[in-house]
Structure formats: structure tokens, C-alpha cells
Amino acid sequence: MHTTEEVTIGYDILAANRKLAQNNRKTLDKSEVTAFNIMGAIGSGKTLLVEKTIAALGNRWRIGAIAGDVVASLDASRFEKLGIPVIGLNTGKECHLDAHLVEHGFQKLPLDALDILFIENVGNLICPADYELGEHKRVVIVSVSEGDDIVEKHPLIFSTADLIIVNKIDIAKAVNADADKMVRDARIINPRIDVLKMSLKTGEGFDEWVDFVKKSISLVMENQD
């Protein structure tokens, strides 16, 4: 009986979050903003990916960001230095953003003056998987330094993702990791997933990521017509 109650409560929380996420999507679509939920472990390269993307696309598109973290606002501060609208959301004891928190972030952002919104989730490969935020695309970035079995150890987050980025491939040999194995594992878990091998340090694979962002924006705009 106790177990059944816990499952029901968990389901209700996710169902309520899903409804809020749907409302968030409507808000984004009304403002014609394409949102990307960037997920990954601490140190995988989430913040640097967003920084470099802002630098690459900021002259063409109006970009904003939400930076989620358990405490502090270090990532939000990094984005602010790039001159974009940014909101830092602290989750306290929670290891993920949820749709309710993101809704509050929307209220503090000039959505009507944005084209792209990057939502950097809390550094974790487990908690964020269940919580939709209203995003148009889910992106998971992993690093070869996390071990080449990291993908098969966390199937849920990859099963819900639109894109996986295998980062830091320039050090794969040094850490005895097989980036191709990580790619294969991702495609076994999710045959429809797009996969990029990347080094944010050398720039390898970054142009393909920029193309993914551009194509995603075009698809979102087409679906709104």
C-alpha cells in the first residue's frame, strides 16, 4: 500500500509538470522563440557550448538564456558577460529544473525580443530526464572523460533526447575512452537520435552543432505557420 501511494504521488507530480510544460511551450510559440534544453553532467561542457553558440549566432539571432543550478549563479554570470538577457534559477535541494521554475524564468525574460532560448539544466544525467520544460529540442552533452560506458549507464535521458553531443574527443585516447562506442550506445537506446562528436577545445564538430540549431529554428517556425 505504501509503495502504491509513492508511485501515484510520483505520477501526479510528473503529470502536473507535463501540463505546465505544455503551457510553457505555448508561451514560447506565441513569442516565436525556439528553446533548447541543454542537459549533461557537471563538467561535460554545457556552459561552454552555450557560450560559444552565443558568440557564433548572436549577430544573427536574438538569444537569451536560463541557467539552472543547485546554488549560486556562476553560469548565469558567464552568460551575462556576453550581453544577453539571462536568468539564473536556483533549485535548492532539487537536482533538476522543472516547468514551474522555468515559467517563473519566462516572466523575467523579454521573450518577445528573443529568437532563441538556451536552458542550461542542472548538472545531472538522471533527474532532468523526467521533467519536460516546454523546450522544442532536448540536447544531452557528455564527455569522454566520464567514461565510454556513460551512455549505457543512463539510458532514460538519451531515450528522450533529440541530440547527443560526445564532447572532448580530443582527449579520448588519453582517458582510454572509445567515442564511437558512445555513439553506438546512443543509437541503440534511441535509433532516431542525432549524434555529434565534438571538441569544444579544438572546434571539431561545432559547425555541425550550429547547423542543428539553425535547422531546429527553421522547423519550429514552419510548424507554427
Key descriptive features of the protein:
225 residues, seven-stranded parallel beta sheet, single chain, Rossmann fold, 43% helix, alpha/beta
What do you see in this structure?
- The chain is of the alpha/beta class.
- It has one domain (2-218): Rossmann fold (3-Layer(aba) Sandwich), CATH 3.40.50.
- Helix content is 43%, strand content 17%.
- Strand 6, helix 7 (179-189) and strand 7 (194-197) form a beta-alpha-beta unit.
- Helix 1 packs parallel to helix 4 (99-107).
- The model has no long low-confidence stretch (mean pLDDT 93).
Summarize this structure briefly.
43% of the residues lie in helices and 17% in strands. It has helices at residues 2-30, 46-57, 74-80, 99-107, 150-153, 155-159, 179-189, 206-224; strands spanning 34-39, 63-69, 86-90, 116-120, 137-143, 163-167, 194-197.
Based on CA atoms alone, the radius of gyration comes out at 17 Å
Element string (H = helix, E = strand): HEHEHEHEEHHEHEH
Outline: globular
CATH C-level: Alpha Beta
Assign the CATH topology: Rossmann fold
Spatial strand arrangement across the major sheet: 3-2-4-1-5-6-7
Bin the strand percentage.
15-25%
Distance between the amino and carboxyl termini: 49 Å
Average pLDDT number: 93
Structure classification: alpha/beta
Q: How many distinct helices? A: 8
Number of strands: 7
Q: Biggest sheet, in brief? A: 7 strands, parallel
Helix fraction by DSSP (H/I, runs of at least 4): 40-55%
